[in-house]
Amino acid sequence: MVYDLMIIGGGPAGLTAALYGARGGLNTILLEMGAPGGQAGQTDRIENYPGFPDGITGIDLAMKFAEQAQRFGARLEMTTVREVDFSRANKKVITSNGEYEARAVIIASGAHPRPLGVPGEAELRGRGVSYCATCDGAFFRDKKVAVVGGGDSAVEEALFLTRFASQVTIIHRREALRATRVIQDRARDNPKISFQWNTVVNAIQGKDKVSSLQLKDVRTGALREEPFDGVFIFIGLEPNTDFLGGALTLDPDGYIVTREDLATSIPGVFAAGDVRAKNFRQVSTAVGDGAVAAMAAERYLANL
């Protein structure tokens, strides 16, 4: 079967694209390797998405997106995309469940947390090293944990961790946070949160689980060791584009380059959300991307 529109990725961008595509009368399928929502689905509370003045959990918002897309006829398939073939008029995608074809494709595969790349990180992942506070926070009840990073995600996750941990230390390489002011103020007012400025993690230590961090003062180069039961890393994202195998033009950081209508370097292939090269990555901007990409794909198909 050849679909009109195939969407790779079920975050806010992909789910919005599925909604617009299906509602526009396109035979639409969305391929997602995990639970709908992407990074947003793992967020404890989203307070800056319009229409929810009291906020909403990431997973609840993702479920609403998915329900709405399916109500208009979009098909959601749980599978992992292995590789793509965009060389033909009908684009082909090879997945863990087999092959799918479509006349137009929107890539909304998102991004994943960037690792620190320090000794001990890979070895202790899942044993005190985490990239998702909402996933793993409950395992650190009454424990001392570190959060690495200074942006919105890092500070928001640190605030969430105070529900469980007895002490949360935010470790940041600079002298000031990059997070928005309202989030910074909440963190500074929380008695469980402390800060270590001008500091980076040099190594994560422990035998069977995290027991301490080797910290480095970026000004003096001095090293010190401090005990921690866990470390949560939020230092940015890396795009999920490995499965493309060089099929599309990427920027130096690996994000998909798009035009204003979110078309990529191959006709009939569009990109939306965190996977494309852009300045801002929020749920609201991802939703906007998904709508634009779907409408551009519909126009592309109408002109074939």
TrEMBL record:
One of its GO terms (molecular function) is thioredoxin-disulfide reductase (NADPH) activity. Gene3D superfamilies: FAD/NAD(P)-binding domain. GO terms for biological process: removal of superoxide radicals. It catalyses: [thioredoxin]-dithiol + NADP(+) = [thioredoxin]-disulfide + NADPH + H(+). Pfam families: Pyr_redox_2. The lineage of its organism: Bacteria, Bacillati, Bacillota, Clostridia, Neomoorellales. Binds 1 FAD per subunit. InterPro entries: FAD/NAD-bd_sf, FAD/NAD-binding_dom, Ferredoxin-NADP_redctase_2, Pyr_nucl-diS_OxRdtase_2_AS, Thioredox_Rdtase. Residues 3-290 form the FAD/NAD(P)-binding domain. Belongs to the class-II pyridine nucleotide-disulfide oxidoreductase family. The gene is trxB. It comes from Neomoorella thermoacetica. Homodimer. This is Thioredoxin reductase. The keyword Glycosyltransferase does not apply.
